[in-house]
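Consortium newsletter contribution from the modelling node. Members have asked for a concrete example of what our holo predictions look like. Here is one, prepared for the phosphoribosyl ATP complex that several groups have been discussing at recent meetings.
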Amino acid sequence: MNEILRIAVQKSGRLSEDSFALIKECGIDFQNGIGQLKAQATNFPAEFLLLRDDDIPGYVADGVADIGIVGENVMLEKGKNTDIAHRLGFSKCRLSIAIPKNEEYQGIKGLEGKNIATSYPRILQSFLEANQVSAHIHEISGSVEIAPSIGLAEAICDLVSSGSTLFTNGLKEVEVVLKSEAVLIKQKQLSQGKINLLDKLLFRIKSVQNARKNKYILLNAPKNKVEEIKRLVPGMRSPSIMELADKDWVSMHSVINENDFWNVIEALREAGAEGILVVPIEKMIL
Ligand code: PRT
Ligand code: ZN
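And here is the predicted structure:
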């Protein structure tokens, strides 16, 4: 029997756009119609289940889906039996404790006996236990940030990205409980056929991620500076060097990492490189 990989993805929300973009960049096409809960890939043995993010860990643990894309925060909070197959690097946020901004923070022990409102009781409880603090956890499902102003709690534990929601609600972040990002989770007992499909998908995801992290660089270098410039742009194995019509110069091609991009460009200019071109890479297979 030909295996098919069932992939759970958030239907619409903060994870959806990046999840769909990644799938597309992996060369997998499917039609996502309005109101549709299932979609068949047209050029990969996969089927997509379009769900609320909260349901994804359970569906994957139960084997309704084989793999899924979900925030690590939701995966940990649901406590279902799944494994992280790969970290995806988008939808980054942190789960943090916040208190009213004009209150002085007494350190984690100052939370002893306090009421903390959250949608993440399980993660918060284990954080408090690890810090030997006992507090009252009020589980609420939404609008957690208004809890202190309506007298429901003295502190909250909620997701933060820019911090503007906390700021608008007169709160300040005092403890980071968890740093989260989107993760690809998998069911623990996949058949060999499905493992093979997952490996194919992971190979594509890694190629897309490598490409996003790197840029292709072309530059002209005086021949007597080639060794110095080689050290600045070592590339995947070593840079390509091509003769130019002008015998004192060569053209060098290589790959540079996004993280040290500007430092490398500055160093290249100082080393005498000219005519530097930087172009995006679509896929990068190491
Ligand atoms: O409908 P469904 O159940 O599928 O979606 P949802 O509404 O439960 O989740 P959704 O789409 O809002 O978020 C999905 C995932 O995105 C979360 O589980 C996180 O992993 C991730 N993520 C990243 C965030 C944020 N950033 C984020 N900022 N999820 C929520 N927020 C909220 C936060 O709760 C708070 O209200 O944004 C506000 C804070 O943002 P800042 O920028 O003001 O700090
Ligand atoms: Zn949700």
